[in-house]
Amino acid sequence: MATKNSSVTEFILAGLTDQLGLQIPLFFLFLCSYVITVVGNLGLITLIGLNSHLHTPMYFFLFNLSLIDFCYSTTITPKMLMSFVSKKNIILHTGCMTQLFFLCFFGISESLVLSAMAYDRYAAICKPLVYTVTMSPQVSFLLLLSVYVMGFLGAMGHTGSIMSLTFCADNLVNHFLCDIFPLLELSCNSTYVNELVVFIVVAIVIGVPTITIFISYTLILSSILHISSTEGRCKAFHTCSSHVIVISLFFGSGAFMYLKPPSILPLDQGKVSSLFYTIVVPLLNQLIYSLRNKDVKIALRKTLRRKTFS
């Protein structure tokens, strides 16, 4: 079980709950939610790819948000489902660190994509005459590239910090995934520096997008209030409402989980918070953006009509 430096080579994931009566119902509940997440996000990706009128900056970022949500959910859910049907949900040390890396990478990338989408809405509503220049394909690509670069650097920072720790006898992770704070609890050595790294990185990846989003929507609200027609105001509010709902869900649960010291936040509450932003948010995102989006519904009807005629 242990290597020469006394670091464990595998972990056991405790899962979401140890109540036997809930294992099978929860398995089917999260299996159904995963299937809906996969089908919904892949469907949204396909719709955006097939319909040329959706090839705009807004849907370019939505395409990437759906891709991130699909990968995010796939990183977490299959392994969590195993904990409901197996006595010991074992994950190798390398597998655990890999899951942690992609958890951080997709989580950070999602927060930054949401801020890019807020900037896009600001440009569309507040600067409509120069929107095509402000959000040109080159600008959109550079924004997206910076999203993934910052996601990679943040994930490397978190994963490198955890990999520097030594794990001794206890290898039971009190969680359904390899998350930062449950792994810190298993460390033999001091975790003060690691907790500081977590706080700094999370403060940046939540703080910067939050400031960007707040400024964007303050300017958007100001512009909307200056629109003379009631129909114009309603259309602008409807355009932004889906994005505001998604932002509130994602940043609210993420901040609750990571911007508190682990001593203040019990791990059982941490499980619920993690469940929300890793499972529930990817499920809701594609439902919110598809059911509340007129362009997506039109694209779906056109695509189904083409398939029917063919």
UniProtKB/TrEMBL annotation:
InterPro entries: GPCR_Rhodpsn (IPR000276), GPCR_Rhodpsn_7TM (IPR017452), Olfact_rcpt (IPR000725). It is found in: Cell membrane. One of its GO terms (cellular component) is plasma membrane. The keyword Acyltransferase does not apply. Coiled coil: none annotated. It is a multi-pass membrane protein. The chain crosses the membrane at residues 26-50, 56-78, 90-109, 196-224, 236-259, 274-291. SUPFAM superfamilies: Family A G protein-coupled receptor-like. Keywords: Cell membrane, G-protein coupled receptor, Membrane, Olfaction, Receptor, Sensory transduction, Transducer, Transmembrane, Transmembrane helix. Residues 40-289 form the G-protein coupled receptors family 1 profile domain. One of its GO terms (molecular function) is olfactory receptor activity. The keyword Acetylation does not apply. Its main location: membrane. It holds the Pfam family 7tm_4. Belongs to the G-protein coupled receptor 1 family. This is Olfactory receptor. It comes from Loxodonta africana.
